[in-house]
Design a protein that fits this description.
CATH class: Alpha Beta
Number of strands: 8
Structural class: alpha/beta
Distance between the termini: 28 Å
Helix content: 25-40%
Radius of gyration: 18 Å
Largest sheet: 8 strands, mixed
Strand order of the largest sheet: 1-2-4-3-5-6-7-8
CATH topology: Rossmann fold
Order of helices and strands: EEEHEHEHEHHHHEHEH
CATH architecture: 3-Layer(aba) Sandwich
Length: about 290
Amino acid sequence: MIKQEFCYSRLNDLDLSMTFYSVPDNSSTKATLLYLHGGGLLYGNRDDLPEAYCQLLIENGYNLLTIDYPLAPEVKLSTIYSCLQESITWFLNNYQTTLGLRNPDYFLFGRSAGGFLTYLLSARHHLLEQKGLISFYGYYDLTNPAFSQPSSYYNQFPKVAPMAAQAMIHSKPIANASINERFSLYLSGRQFGNWLSYLVNNPSEKETYSLTDTELTKLPAAFLAHSSADQDVPVEASRIAESKIPNVTYEEVEKLPHDFDSDLTNGEGHRVYYALIKWLDQTLATS
């Protein structure tokens, strides 16, 4: 597996980069997965997908392009969205010359908050080259009451006061932050029910960045995965999406935590990725 790094844009003096995971000979690539990481839009980094899954996807003909995006609250959701539009444009302009690919076919793939961004881009920036969307334990609706109320799950942990959380915010945009550095910022937001204030300028913007039922019915082919016991993003987010997206495959796992695929000792993660590869092949065959 080859890893190459590219800069697709700059935000002020911040480089926004990508990592391209591929095989030595790209001529047999079926499509490219443009990957968006999770972390509540407040933390995380583009290369958080376990290498075992990267290898599995590449062995089956799917290269990965993992993408930086600027984190909130140093920037708001509008800036994150516009940067990701730029990343897709970069891919379409460079797939042949820079990446050595024979076709521009791509799938958007996100986990958790990355799944949210995948829904948003698929609904509002859908291009012919996009063949489908993949959301692992993602969501599409910021008006979900669970996101604006104190979380009973997160309130089991020691409280992080809003003033302490504010101290973690940088003076300039950043594009990656480890869970150790910034999870407390997310934790505080969920404990006090003010997480969304980090993403939007005013409460009405929650609707602006939520998909309507009509938008769900117009999404491209979708593969969704979620745990019934998800303690962070209610499983209903994916169950409702499954009921509204016309061409959808949904894998629900039982009694596992939010990011169920992060535990490589549990076979459910591998099972779902094999199901994903089968879906990718079928979707390309019928597109």
